[in-house]
Amino acid sequence: MTAKNGNYAGRVAFVTGAANGIGRATSLAFAREGASVVVADVSERGNQETAGMIEEFGGHTLAVTCNVARAEDVKAAIDKAIETFGRLDFTFNNAGVEQPVMATADITETDWDRLVDINLRGVFLCMKYEIPLMLKQGSGAIINTSSGAGLKGFAGQAAYVAAKHGVVGLTKAAALDYAQSNIRVNAVCPGIIDTPMMQRFTGATREGRDRVIAQEPVGRMGKPEEIAAAVVWLCSDAAAFVTGHAMVIDGGQTL
Q1: Is-contact 92 143, C-beta < 8 A?
Q2: CB atoms < 10 A from the CB of 24, how many?
Q3: Three-state SS at 117
Q4: What single DSSP character describes residue 223?
Q5: pTM of the full predicted structure?
Q6: pLDDT tens digits, 131-149
Q7: CA 216, CA 77: separation in Å to the nearest integer?
Q8: Could you confirm whether 160 is annotated as catalytic?
Q9: DSSP codes, 9-74
Q10: Choice among 8, 129, 160, 178 that is catalytic
Q11: Taking Cα atoms as reference points, which of 139, 140, 136, 166 lies closest to residue 151?
Q12: Domains of the chain, start order
């Protein structure tokens, strides 16, 4: 990890799903830019590890345990962020879970509810408690994690696809609701990214990895840091005219 460069000094970022993968990479990227970072995840151990990485190079951080499907957890996490740092400038509503490959009619109601509760309702709950604070301070940037599956269908992924399409729609509607309030709302749509989630999805085998990489025109998986760079840019002044956008970062997979 390189030293901080200070572009976001005095700013505060809130990141869900921060225990590993894209969430961890983005937490570190915000911290590298000088922001104080609230890292939130249901995995207390992984979350603390992310916070430790930030502290190792002198960054300011707070680790909070949070299940984004539970309104009380989300509210408590954001309240703690404000109590600790006093403001909320950037939020990356990123927590999510994968779906095992399964035909639509084979998905149980329990599995459906879990996918939608975490991947879609969790994004809504985060925005529900983030936006009033941003309205109070007069500014903010929100980034939600959708997916290439938020833009097209994938066989065997009905619940995941439905939830991620929902994130794109939610992002666009919220962007219009707050466009005149100096709050920008965008989404990122990652393709096949080399994360623990993808390792589980592929069975952590060479055959499984080769199968998904074959879907990528660029011939490789993406890196979590490549998504993190896009999130940090979308929160920056350079993206001040960007809102309601679903940014595809997928190596050409959905073309």
Answers
A1: yes
A2: 27
A3: helix
A4: P
A5: 0.93
A6: 999 999 999 999 999 999 9
A7: 37
A8: yes
A9: TT-EEEEESTTSHHHHHHHHHHHHTT-EEEEEES-HHHHHHHHHHHHHTT--EEEEE--TT-HHHH
A10: 160
A11: 166
A12: 12-249 (3.40.50.720)
